[in-house]
Write a structure and sequence with these properties.
Blueprint lengths: L1 E7 L5 E7 H7 L8 H9 L5 H7 L4 E3 L2 E5 L5 E6 L2 E7 L3 H11 L5 E6 L5 E10 L5 H4 L23 H21 L5 H20 L17 E2 L7 E2 L6 E3 L3 H4 L2 H6 L6 H25 E6 L4 E6 L8 E2 L2 H13 L6 H8 L6 E2 L1 H8 L9 H6 L9 H17 L11 E5 L6 H6 L10 E2 L7 H10 L2 E4 L7 H13 L2 E5 L6 E5 L3 E6 L14 E5 L12 H13 L8 H11 L7 H9 E3 L7 E4 H12 L9 H9 L6 E4 L2 E8 L4
């Protein structure tokens, strides 16, 4: 039996090799020379970065169920079915790993058991076979049955005395081979999938009764695979017995095939039709792959293409107009196909995946030159804010981290740099230049904050959202909807033409610009804004060194530098932002008639309701907004120089009346 090893390099080129099961079991007892398995296990412990890491440092995938080869299009094609399925038990500690391996040895269907790609899982290889052909002599690939010929491969002219006996042996072996081959036929990949699915279900039911943890529920096929494991003491039983499996192919047959097959057609006619459909489909796929390049953009959720005849063409989304053009090109070249035929392939999971974010970031992972490029970029913003460089550094790490999180993350990037200056000081240009050209699709400065559905969709697809003209966002929106979305780690939206609401990871971080200084309407929410008032125009004459900028961020995140603000920094932000708070009419009238007193000799203790009543008599209730005593009390509590005490009647404040002007 041979296992298949598949490696896709950074350019997505496919490399295939095979090893015998015996060689594989020896191979996993030690790591590679550069410690690839151990290094990947360490990366797994960091959580969300593993997909990008695997693209930057590709490792072999092991396919235990079959031997695969490459077809003419460079895709995997099943060659020989091994009759093996893999059970996975994960979430294990060291003692549980040992217990699972020991338990797997109890059943004689276990071919092998070993620690998986992480240190907290065990993979069990179980032999299976079709119930009617489960005997050891028949479950092996018939290509291996020819081994007896090896004893009669020497020229018969050198062994004339034994010639007649050799002829007799050869005749007998040929007859035996023909008999066995007639009983055993290599299954198609579809048949092997059915066998694997039913075999996995049956094996999981059988093995679960002796396992300390649940067997992982997963989609199973003949193409199920796992990353290279590492186990110094794996279990291997070459005499394992195949678990008899009775597949149910009828349940897996596509409905349209069942409905479209006439009952009066014989098997021969059906086979010819199926072969013709297969031939036409392959011809269509070959033509499309020869004339176009395709990739599925996992961030934007659509397939992109390049026309092979246009050398400098950028990757472009495949829309309906493009699909119709491809169909016409196909038909002009003598291939009988319709729009739906082309669409089925172009929008199928046979198109390679492309993650523009992680592909870009992990290319830069180990290229940092050691210089502080992030704070250097912050210094292009002239300001008297002494904290700006450090605040920008932490926010930038949070932005890059946000691009890589899953929808299982607990928190989103809650900080928002707020650039404050007169018009024409390059605030918007600075925001646009934060993203490299490769990721410029992820920037938007045209968010309709009142359209909640659009906002949530942009948060899932965009990378950086500029809240331009922040002063135009109403206080109610600041304190409600905006405050809520800034804290989200994932968003629940329904795709266009979708039927269900789905959970998507939030990728976008926020930045904001304004021409007015008093813009923060929510005192409790001001901690989320990194307010910086410019003293001059931002220098945007030289674009940032994107490679070093993002390489530094990746290294910082790898070293677990904080990408969020702790209690000390948060209090620092709150104190700094008080100068940018929006003053209500009630606050302004209070400052017109009252001021904080230093002690009781120059002022007296007055309740918030009494102060409110005094102002109402002076200016009238219509001007005193918000006309609410409890809200007014909260405003007084946020005045840092105003002394406050609690009595049995409520809060009182030490104030003195100003002399009338």
């Amino acid at each position: 039996m041979k296992l298949t090893f598949v490696l896709r390099n950074k350019k997505n080129a496919l490399k295939i090799s095979t090893k015998t099961i015996e060689s594989f079991m020896e191979r996993i007892k030690r790591d590679t020379k550069d410690g690839a398995v151990a290094r990947r296990r360490k990366q797994l412990s960091y959580g969300n970065f593993i997909s990008g890491y695997d693209r930057q440092y590709p490792t072999h995938l092991v396919y235990p169920s079959a031997v695969f080869e490459k077809d003419d299009n460079g895709n995997l094609r099943m060659k020989t079915f091994n009759g093996v399925v893999a059970l996975t038990i994960d979430g294990l500690d060291n003692q549980e790993v040992y217990a699972v391996k020991r338990a797997a040895q109890i059943l004689h269907y276990t071919l092998a058991a070993f620690v998986g790609p992480s240190e907290h899982e065990v993979i069990i290889l179980v032999k299976i076979a079709k119930a009617e052909s489960a005997s050891p002599s028949i479950t092996q690939p018939y290509s291996e049955i020819t081994s007896p010929y090896s004893e009669i491969t020497q020229p018969y002219s050198t062994i004339l005395p034994e010639y007649s006996e050799i002829v007799r042996k050869k005749t007998k072996l040929v007859q035996e081979k023909s008999k066995i081959v007639s009983q055993y036929s290599e299954p198609t990949e579809e048949e092997a999938d059915v066998l694997c699915q039913e075999g996995h279900r049956l094996a999981a039911t059988l093995y679960q009764s002796i396992m300390p943890k649940p067997i992982k529920t997963e989609l199973v096929s003949v193409r199920s695979c796992f990353h290279m494991p590492l186990d110094a003491t794996p279990y291997y039983n070459p005499k394992a017995v195949a678990l008899p499996v009775s597949p149910k192919p009828a349940a897996t047959q596509p409905l349209e095939v069942v409905m479209n097959t006439s009952e009066d057609l014989g098997d021969e006619t059906s086979d010819k039709e199926a072969q013709e459909v297969s031939r036409k489909t392959k011809r269509l796929m070959d033509f499309l792959n020869e004339n176009y390049k395709f990739r599925y953009n996992t961030i934007m959720g659509y397939t992109e293409y390049k026309d092979s005849s246009r050398q400098y063409m950028d990757w472009t989304p495949v829309d309906d107009r493009t699909l119709k053009g491809m169909t016409m090109n196909v038909r002009l070249n003598g291939i009988d196909a319709r729009d739906n035929d082309v669409r089925r392939y172009v929008q199928s999971n046979m198109i390679i995946l492309h993650d523009p974010i992680n592909d870009y970031l992990w290319e830069l992972y180990d290229k940092w030159d050691g210089k502080d490029h992030i704070r250097k970029l912050a210094r292009t913003v002239p300001t008297k804010n002494p904290h700006w460089e450090d605040w920008f550094y932490t926010w930038f790490l949070g932005m890059v981290r946000q691009w890589q999180v899953s929808n299982l993350a607990k928190y989103g990037n809650q900080a928002v740099p707020l650039l404050i200056s007169s018009q024409g000081w390059n605030k918007t240009t600075f925001c646009e230049q934060l993203l490299p050209p490769e990721l410029s699709f992820g920037y938007t400065g045209n968010l309709q904050i009142d359209d909640k559905k659009q906002v949530l969709q942009q948060m899932a697809q965009m990378l950086l959202i500029n809240l331009d003209e922040f002063n135009q966002i109403s206080p109610q929106t600041q304190q409600g909807f905006l405050k809520n979305i800034i804290t989200l780690s994932s968003v629940k939206i329904k795709r266009p033409y979708g039927r269900h609401v789905e959970d998507f990871p939030r990728r976008a971080s926020f930045i904001a610009t304004t021409n007015q200084a008093d813009v923060l309407a929510d005192p409790s929410g001001s901690r989320r804004f990194l307010s910086v008032e410019l003293t001059g125009p931002i220098d945007v004459s030289t674009p940032p060194n994107y490679e070093q900028l993002y390489a530094q961020a990746m290294q910082a995140l790898h070293r677990h530098e904080p990408y969020y603000f702790g209690p000390t920094e948060t209090q620092q932000i709150i104190e700094w932002n008080k100068r940018f708070s929006m003053k209500t009419a009630a606050e302004q009238f209070f400052s017109d008639y009252f001021e904080p007193a230093a002690d009781e000799t120059e002022g007296k203790w007055i309740s918030s309701s009494a102060i409110f009543e005094h102002l109402k008599q002076k200016v009238g209730i219509s001007l005193l907004k918000p006309a609410n005593v409890s809200y007014f009390g909260r405003l007084l509590s946020n005045i840092p120089t105003l002394q406050k005490r609690e009595t049995k009647y409520g809060s009182e404040y030490l104030v003195k009346l100003k002399k009338p002007k």
